[in-house]
Amino acid sequence: MRTRFVLIQPSHAGNVGAAARALRVMGFDDLVLVQPRWDDVLTREETIERASGAIDVLHKARAVPTLDEALEGMTHVCATVMTPRDFGPPTSTPREHFAGVAREGHSVAFLFGSERYGMRNEDVYRCHAALRIPVAPDYGSLNLASAIQVIAYEWRLALGGFGLEPPAAAPAADAAAVAGMLRHWEQALVEIGFLDPAAPKKLMPRLNQLFNRAQPTPEEIHILRGVAKAMSEAAKKAKP
């Protein structure tokens, strides 16, 4: 699904770079600037530094003189607002709005106002929806790049996300290794006086079940054998 992020009159080069980084980590790369403060903002040193490696997004990004040009080809436009407008498109949280939009196959543009003034009413009125990020009621000021990151993350989730590959599971020790370790522990527990061989009750079967649930790795079996060995040596030293 085609996705574009539009920054209207951005005034800080660092925010443009940070915006590129925010897009890149969420898999987006269509960034358009409308009347940026600096004509060379995409190549300024601060921009490149704050992009932190997302140079491909900066290379593809473009600056245009009008919002009309920035929205060319987009079929669903979302404004980002800090406070609801008395008139204009319906306001909702990103997650609420994205659930439906992601299924409709639109080309979506997200609009962000300038750092100093936010979005003008006339620009908001052009949009199909106004997005308001839920924040603390007593402090609702979000940095531009932070707001872009939140929107990009929520939109990526709505599109299905990337998913996380689970770490490779360490192989569990085989039954023979567990049984050998338990015999070692049984001997050590007797030597320290914790297990009475004449009345063992169900201590060892319970420990067997415990380690079956834990699924220890061969390395962990080695550690447990080391503990048993240390217990036995301590018991021998304690004898008169």
Describe the structure.
By secondary structure, this protein is α/β, with parallel strands linked by helices. The chain has two domains: 3-158, Alpha/beta knot, CATH 3.40.1280.10; 175-238, Helicase, Ruva Protein, domain 3 (Orthogonal Bundle). The chain is built from ten helices and seven strands. Strands 3-2-1-6-4-7-5 form a seven-stranded parallel β-sheet. The longest helix has 21 residues, at 218-238. The radius of gyration is 30 Å and the shape is elongated. The relative contact order is 0.13.
Supply the helix-strand structural class. alpha/beta
Shape: elongated
Major β-sheet strand ordering? 3-2-1-6-4-7-5
What's the CATH class label of the largest domain? Alpha Beta
Bin the strand percentage.
Answer: 5-15%
CATH topology of the largest domain: Alpha/beta knot
CATH arch. level architecture of the largest domain: 3-Layer(aba) Sandwich
The succession of helices and strands, N to C, reads EHEHHEHEEHEHEHHHH
Domain module count: 2
Mean pLDDT over the full residue set: 91
CATH superfamily caption of the largest domain: SPOUT methyltransferase, trefoil knot domain
Question: What is the number of beta strands?
Answer: 7
Rounded to the nearest angstrom, the distance between the terminal CA atoms is 79 Å
How would a textbook summarize the main sheet? 7 strands, parallel
Q: What is the radius of gyration? A: 30 Å
Poorly predicted spans: none
- Secondary structure: helix percent: 40-55%
Q: Tally the helices: what do you get? A: 10
